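User: Here's a structure from my thesis project, written as structure tokens. My advisor, Dr. K., wants to see whether a designed sequence matches the one we expressed. Can you design one independently, without my sequence as a hint?
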């Protein structure tokens, strides 16, 4: 069983600058204890002869050579644009800074 106490949870919340209600402290104490216990179980069976994995099946990237192909001209790219200035797409400002 882990050593996670309500005092530990309050201390961690203080370090993270998170305000917790007494009910949240109680709930998180149990949840964190369960997480620590699960990690302890995995650590117990993780031996040097068991390789660390992020996926259960070996994964491999499929690469292809970069080959220059037919490219769109600026005019072709802009034909379907709802708004443009002749050489660039025109979009609405999203950060509230109208120009």
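Assistant: Designed independently from the structure alone:
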């Amino acid at each position: 069983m882990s050593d996670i106490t309500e005092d530990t949870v309050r201390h961690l919340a203080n370090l993270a600058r998170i305000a917790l209600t007494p009910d949240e402290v109680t709930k998180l104490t149990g949840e964190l204890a369960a997480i620590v216990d699960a990690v302890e179980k995995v650590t117990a069976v993780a031996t040097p002869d068991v390789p660390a994995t992020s996926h259960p099946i070996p994964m491999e990237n499929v690469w292809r050579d970069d080959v220059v192909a037919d490219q769109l001209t600026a005019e072709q790219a802009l034909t379907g644009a709802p708004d443009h200035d002749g050489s660039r797409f025109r979009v609405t400002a999203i950060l509230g800074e109208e120009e």
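When you compare it with your expressed construct, this may help: The helical segments are 6-15, 22-45, 74-78.
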